[in-house]
Design goal:
By secondary structure, the chain is α/β, with parallel strands linked by helices. The protein has 17 helices and 13 strands. The chain has helices at about 20-25, 35-40, 70-75, 100-110, 125-130, 130-135, 140-155, 170-180, 200-215, 225-235, 250-255, 260-265, 270-275, 280, 290-295, 305-315, 335-345; strands at about 5-15, 45-55, 60-65, 85-90, 90-95, 110-115, 185-190, 220-225, 235-240, 245-250, 300, 320-325, 330-335. Bound molecules: adenosine-5'-triphosphate and magnesium ion.
Length: about 350
Amino acid sequence: MVDKAKIVCKNIWKIFGDNPSRILSNLDQSLSRSEIQENTGHVVAVKDVSFSIQKGETFVVMGLSGSGKSTLVRCLSRLIEPTAGEILIDEANIINISSNELTQMRRHKMSMVFQHFGLFPHRKVIENISYGLEIRGSNRSERMDRAMEVLKLVGLDGWENNYPRELSGGMQQRVGLARALAVDPEILIFDEPFSALDPLIRREMQDELLNIQKLVKKTMVFITHDFLEAIKMGDHIAIMKDGEISQIGTPEEIVANPADQYVKDFTEDVPKYKVLSAGKVMREAVGVNTKKLFKDRQHCVLESDKIDQLIDLISETDTPVPVTSANGKKLVGEIDRTIVMKAMSSRS
Ligand SMILES: Nc1ncnc2c1ncn2[C@@H]1O[C@H](COP(=O)(O)OP(=O)(O)OP(=O)(O)O)[C@@H](O)[C@H]1O
Ligand SMILES: [Mg+2]
């Protein structure tokens, strides 16, 4: 891979209880999490998890309640100390750094956005947003300028002098987002940021965050228990179950090839035609007519085109159409109405 990983986790374990190291060194790997809890009174919250996150991507951690999402993500900033494993940020292992270095890292490299906003009730919106800059020691005019800049970015212009209680939930979370962005961190961590919001506001916030991400291009780690939110927000998704990762992949990889029944159950409600691309569902063996269309560069679609984008073309074309490589130069397969309809059916 050309890009360097921003965050790498290697074999992370987190066991809660009186003597986690002893439990880890004597662990019987064949026992389930609940058996270990019954036998030892310890909870294996994160079990041997490894992954890497590229700079500028949104990495989603998805799973049911209790699967270990918050514990895992808190290990990234050592808000929770992992029982074992390595965490590399910009290739440096942060497990053994001093508490002073850790404070610097949290102040300058990372910001968090929480489910229940975590705003200071007695501070005005603008003072909430500028809080991280205040701790860093920036002067007042610098803080206010920057806070106003991010306030505009999250669409809260005019609300700077209000108190959090005067704002709706969605607006309060915009303040949470602005506060996290104000310090211009390299890494943004979101722990179920939109779960407390109404569905429509939630969708609005997701769209807003996607737009903001296009501008700021931060490395984002985003926790959710909602698979539709995961596929909308994530460049990659890690699906967790009982402290372990069941599967890591792009939304399309996961929807096209769920690793096990647990993952498959999440994918059942997904409108597959919005996630799958022509290249995933096409037929590789092409007919003579398709070859001719390709030669004449007629009705060609790219293998990366989502089915969703092809519906108009396919519904108006009786014969299969050519599917080409991303640069349009190579014929890689063909796609027709039947394939598209099957991809649109929830059973596919
Ligand atoms: N401080 C703690 N002490 C003991 N057990 C804990 C502690 N924190 C979490 N756990 C346990 O670790 C497991 C994973 O919890 P975690 O909060 O990481 O799950 P989660 O996936 O974030 O769940 P949710 O979606 O409900 O937020 C759970 O069984 C939980 O009870
Ligand atoms: Mg959680």
